[in-house]
Amino acid sequence: MSDQPPAPPMPVADPLTQFFWDAAKQHELRIQRCQACGTYIHPPRPVCRVCQSTDLAPERVSGRATLYTWTVAEQAFGPYFATKLPYVYATVELAEQAGLRVITNVVDVPWEQLRAGMALEVAFDDVTPELTLPVFRPAS
Fold first, then answer.
1. pLDDT of 83-94, one tens digit each?
2. Deepest in the core among 43, 44, 102, 109, taking most CB within 10 A?
């Protein structure tokens, strides 16, 4: 039996999402944006859902958000999560565009204090040398 803690599940980046994970490692939040109409697109896709342009590029965003909805995980869905319980699994809406939502974790606040519309800001969790996750915490 190993004394090593369980490894986290690792995202599998592809050509559409690689920029997101690379930016997170640099502690930046980047979201795909249509260069033709200005619409932010998340999750990334090859064609703009508004104007059908293929001229899409990652852009740095402010990291400001509001809490849209959340749930509190009290059961581990794999060995890695057993020591993380309870944790908040949430959808946040980024300030740059109405409806621009990201699935994430909310940290640094007791779950009992969470409220819809709560002001949040991005933070980064360096989970492993290979994986950094953008998470959100109450805005300072």
1. 899 999 999 999
2. 102
